[in-house]
Amino acid sequence: xxxAGVGVGLRSPHLDPVAALDAAPVPFWEIAPxxxxxxxxxxxxxxxxxxxxxxxxxxxxxMSMGGFEAWAPEVLDRLVAFxxxxxxxxxxxxxxxxxxxxxxxxxxxPLPFTREAVKHTVARVKGLQARLPxxxxxxxxxYYAELGASEMSERDFLLEVLEGADCGWLLDVNNVYxxxxxxxxxxxxxxxxxxxxxxxxxxxxxxxxxxxEGVLLDTHGAPVADPVRDLLAWLLPRLGRPVPxxxxxxxxxxxxxxxxxxxxxxxxxxxxxxxxxxxx
Length: 280
Fold this sequence. Notes:
The two termini are 22 Å apart. An 8-stranded parallel barrel has the order 1-2-3-4-7-8-9-12, surrounded by 4 helices. Strands 5-6 form a two-stranded antiparallel ribbon. Helix content is 39%, strand content 19%. By secondary structure, the protein is an alpha/beta fold. The protein has one domain (6-278): TIM Barrel, CATH 3.20.20.150. It has 9 helices and 12 strands. Strand 3, helix 3 and strand 4 form a beta-alpha-beta unit. The radius of gyration is 18 Å and the shape is globular. It has helices spanning 15-19, 41-53, 73-86, 115-131, 154-165, 173-183, 187-191, 226-235, 256-278; strands spanning 6-9, 29-31, 56-59, 91-94, 97-100, 103-109, 136-139, 168-172, 199-204, 207-210, 215-218, 245-247. Helix 4 runs parallel beside helix 5.
């Protein structure tokens, strides 16, 4: 693993304070190419300066891996060029669809859990991977309803896509937990037997309970909840090697000092769990 420890997603409110530092306050940042490529202006210059100084992982938001929209050649060319400049060891995207008819929903929409969708998505992943200069990871998403009649479980769907495409896995622990509550399964049993050797990176974030709807919502707008921290602590020793963990915060973003304090708490958990595993 070229990266280890707990990193943070680099967000716009933190560009100025991070750019003013002499060195990175985290082991690595994660950045979405869509938030940098073609942006221009001071925001792009500051972001690129940070990425030139610090280690970075890249995570895409808009490729709609299960969709039917063809990727424009110029979009792929810009992505490839950007990845080459960052030094990222891999690039990741969500296992979802998000665009149709030229319109982007800005939502991570679930795919139908069918064999046809597996075949289609595997072909898309292989097609993109063939263009990228680095290995490719898929991230499991949170979802609130199944799209059409399912032929398999979400777990089996994810497994078949990962194995069929022979790609890496960005394991979002919060998404597993959210789905476990909303769809009634044991998250530890769900993870047991999954191809953990494919996990190259982990995402961790928060959720919000909506009592009127009886739904747990993936929100990224507060500190990570204890059940998700506990699931992370259970998972880490089972991977067999240190894997980078990324703290996501996309709403109600606190100031940099508060965010780094939460990162430090997660880093302490990470170090403690892996030290215990090493001595077990």
